[in-house]
Design brief:
Helices cover 45% and strands 15% of the residues. By secondary structure, the protein is α/β, with parallel strands linked by helices. The chain has 2 domains: 6-54 and 315-409, Aspartate Aminotransferase, domain 1 (Alpha-Beta Complex), CATH 3.90.1150; 57-310, 3-Layer(aba) Sandwich (Aspartate Aminotransferase, domain 2). The strands form 3 sheets. A 7-stranded mixed β-sheet has the order 2-8-7-6-5-3-4, with helices on both faces. It has a 3-stranded antiparallel β-sheet with strand order 9-12-11. α2 packs antiparallel against α13, α4 (79-90) crosses α12 and α7 runs parallel beside α8. The mean pLDDT is 96. The structure holds pyridoxal-5'-phosphate (PLP). The site of pyridoxal-5'-phosphate has 13 residues, from α5. Residues 42, 106-108, 132, 182, 187, 220, 222, 254, 256, 262, 267 line the site of pyridoxal-5'-phosphate (PLP).
Length: 410
């Protein structure tokens, strides 16, 4: 007996991350938190295992007037927030283009609207084979499908050949294609496209756009503030100037990691185009989707970001605090990467972000084996995800060796 409509029947949310975390919580109950290494969590914990919160964000948030928290926000977002998001995202690397930002419920909301409005129903969205599982869920929820290209070639560099092959395959029968690239600090690998990779991607897409098909690219930058020096990690954005009008770029911005504001569910979808008509359409379609899905977005979080941008001293302090958080995650990741190198554990090239990935043919068995050492990581399709954001500097030591050993059972 099904009461749900046919498309919603048999839907069960399998979430490898939450399942792995649940096993870990069970182990903590038996062995105690000190003995257990939880490398499953996708938020930043300090070295005491407490959820890290940026002090200046905490301070400013508490000064907001109650009405700033409780009033409705405009459907597209507070104008000052929309403008601040553009400043924060591009910093010194704003391309010469029409640019507009629409407030969304986190980066997830931005991904949702991009897939909802820039892929045809029944058609494919393209992303890399190492991808954040929610892309698939959103594609299915909105009646789209997901196809992947191989992110890495044999030398673990960006696989341009497979990227273009998959673009061509889909454009053979689709007139429209949405591509999602999660870079820099890809989840789950920590990989980033280099500036040269970006040149190659844009050249390849320009060529395909010249043939008359409509191509949109969503760049998911959820972890950009944990990816390295801001002026370097944003340099690729300048390349989005003077694109053909049928090559549309969107950016998914999130306050979750950059402001440690995960649960406040605030982000933005940013459109970048050489065409006024395309940006007008983007604003209208986005507003429509906002109204339909959540009506409007958390006003307090938007007000917080605006306030932080306006208060020079607070902003400088906030940037310093975030830099410390970034350095902490980097220190942990550096330990893992170094130890992996020493013990000969092959990992995906890590250049920043919350996670490190270890390719494996049998990730579930390896993660199971790691439980013997009370280490909990996330088994994905192509390998194992280790969360440098949540494992303390002390506990991350030795994890690479343990994974290397667990892999001998593969
Ligand atoms: C790759 C990636 N993109 C986007 C998001 C969106 O996060 P949020 O919806 O919390 O902003 C996440 C969160 O885990 C993520 O891992």
């Amino acid at each position: 007996m099904n009461m749900a409509a046919s498309h919603a029947q048999d839907r069960i949310l399998h979430d490898a991350i939450f399942e792995a975390n649940q096993s870990c919580q069970d182990a903590i109950k038996i062995y105690g938190a000190d003995r257990v290494t939880n490398a499953t969590i996708g938020v930043m914990l300090d070295d005491n295992g407490t959820l890290a919160a940026l002090p200046t964000v905490d301070k400013i948030y508490r000064t907001l007037d109650i009405r700033e928290l409780t009033a409705y926000a405009p459907i597209a977002g507070l104008p000052a927030y929309r403008s601040a998001v553009v400043d924060v995202t591009f910093a010194n690397h704003k391309p010469d283009a029409y640019i507009s930002a629409l407030a969304t419920a986190g980066g997830t909301g931005a991904v949702h609207h991009a897939i909802a409005n820039y892929a045809e129903r029944g058609e494919y969205v393209l992303t890399s084979d190492w991808f954040w599982g929610n892309y698939y869920i959103i594609a299915v929820e909105t009646g789209k499908r997901l196809k992947t290209f191989e992110l890495f070639d044999d030398e673990l560099k960006f696989n341009l050949a497979d990227f273009t092959a998959k673009v061509d395959e889909l454009l053979e029968w689709q007139d429209r294609l949405l591509i999602i690239l999660n870079t820099p600090a890809n989840n789950p690998t920590g990989f980033a496209l280099t500036d040269d990779d970006w040149d190659n991607v844009i050249d390849a897409l320009k060529l395909r756009a010249e043939r008359g098909k409509n191509i949109s690219v969503l760049v998911d930058i959820a972890y950009i503030d944990f990816a390295g020096e801001p002026d370097v990690t944003r340099r690729f954005m300048e390349k989005f100037a003077n694109l053909p009008e049928n090559l549309f770029v969107m950016i998914a911005f999130s306050m979750s990691k950059s402001y440690t504001f995960y649960g406040q569910r605030t982000g933005a979808l940013i459109g970048v185009t050489s065409s006024r008509a395309v940006i007008d359409e983007f604003e209208q379609a986005g507003k429509y989707s906002n109204r339909a899905v959540w009506s409007n977005i958390n006003r307090g979080a938007q007000a917080l970001l605006v306030r932080l941008q306006q208060d020079k001293d607070a902003h400088a302090q906030f940037v310093r605090e975030r830099e410390q958080f970034y350095q902490l995650v980097k220190r942990r990741a550096d330990i893992f990467v170094k130890e992996a190198e020493i013990c000969g554990l092959r990992i995906v090239p890590y250049s920043g972000g919350f996670f490190i990935a270890v390719p494996s043919d049998n990730p579930i068995a390896v993660c199971q084996k790691l439980h013997d050492d009370l280490i909990f990581a996330v088994p994905l399709k192509l390998g194992i995800r280790v969360a440098a954001c949540s494992v303390s500097t002390k506990k991350i030591k030795g994890v690479a060796d343990k994974i290397k050993f667990a892999m001998t059972i593969e």
